[in-house]
Structures are given as structure tokens and as C-alpha cells.
Amino acid sequence: MKMAQLRQLEAQALTGDGKACLALYTEYCNNTPDKLTARKWLDLALDCDEPKAIFIEGVASLASGKVSDALPMLKLAAENDNTDAMNVLGQYYLGNIKGMPHDVIDLEQGLDYLISAARGGNRDAQIVLGKGSLQGTWFRKDVRIARYWFEQARKQGSRQADRLLEELDRVHETII
Q1: In a domain, 30, yes or no
Q2: In this predicted model, what pLDDT tens digit does every residue of 28-76 receive, in sequence order?
Q3: How many Cβ atoms from other residues are within 10 Å of residue 104's Cβ?
Q4: Less Cβ around it within 10 Å: N or C end of the chain?
């Protein structure tokens, strides 16, 4: 990012623009690796109640094992229509996060979050629901529902969904 753009974004952020704070966080994380400055901008985005910042902080807390800190943040982000947070919460409650010990498996809550994320266009949730439908995980096996979710993910640009649909077609051609 050019220096003039960076300064303009900083000016916006300092007026309480949470999206600008988040853009600066991303800039300092990715393009100008400076973890201290990145953290400052993330904290300011959190102070502005920026949903994506709340999601980022929630995922970081979850990854570090601070589940009691993570869940309220992820739920707040989900309440603000963050489908990434819905997806993570869904997979958490379904016990579907590898390497994550789960104190509580809540099938109903997990599926509610996952389906909300998928309906909101989250392709990762769409893939998980498609695979779950294909394998009969969490609910009865249904190839038509699996195909539906894979097609939804394909519409979102998922190459994984393309491969899964090709595999699904190949398997069902040999069965017929």
C-alpha cells in the first residue's frame, strides 16, 4: 500500500472507523509484517466493535485453548452476521475441529450455526454439510442434499466443490 493511502486510512481509523482499523491490521500483518502495530490496529477495531475483528480475536482465543474467552466473541460476531464465525461455532459444537478438545458436543446448536453459515454463503460450511450429507454424519445420508450443498459451494468459487461433484458423478455413474 502506498504511503499516502496508508496515512489516509490511519486518519479514518483514528476517527473510529472500525473497517479502516481492520484494513490497517491486515496491512501490518500481511504486507508490512509488524506484529506490534498490527495488534494496535486490531485492538482499535475491537474497540469499534468491528465484527470481523471480533471473529479474528475469537478464533485466536480458540486456537490458544481459551474456549471460555473465544465462544462469547464468536457468538457476538455470528450475531452480527459473520458467516465465518457461524461456521467455526458450528464445527466447534459438532466436535469437527481437529486437535481441539471439545467439552460439549451439541448437535442441534452445531447444525444450526453450520446451516446458517451455509445459507449465508459460507462455502466451507457448505462443503462440510455436503460431506456430512454424503457420509450420513449428523443426519441421514442423502446424496441429493450433498449435491445441493456442493453446488452452492461451487457457486461461491470453490474448486474443492468442483472435485467433490466430479467424484460424486463418477461414483454414481458406476453404480447405475
Answers
A1: no
A2: 888 877 889 999 999 999 999 898 999 999 999 998 889 889 999 999 9
A3: 11
A4: C
Q: Check: pTM over 0.70? Answer yes or no.
A: yes
Q: Is residue 144 part of a domain?
A: yes
Does residue 171 lie within any of the structural domains? yes
∠ CA 97-72-122, rounded to 5°: 50
- 151 is in which domain, residue-wise? 122-176
Residue 104: pLDDT band (50, 70, 90) is confident
Model pLDDT, residue 30: 87
d(CA 21, CA 48): 9
Instruction: Report in angstroms the alpha-carbon separations of 9 from 27, 39, 46, 162.
Output: 11, 16, 17, 38
* 117 located within any domain: no
Contact between 18 and 49 under an 8 Å Cβ cutoff? The reply is: yes
How many domains does one find in the chain?
1
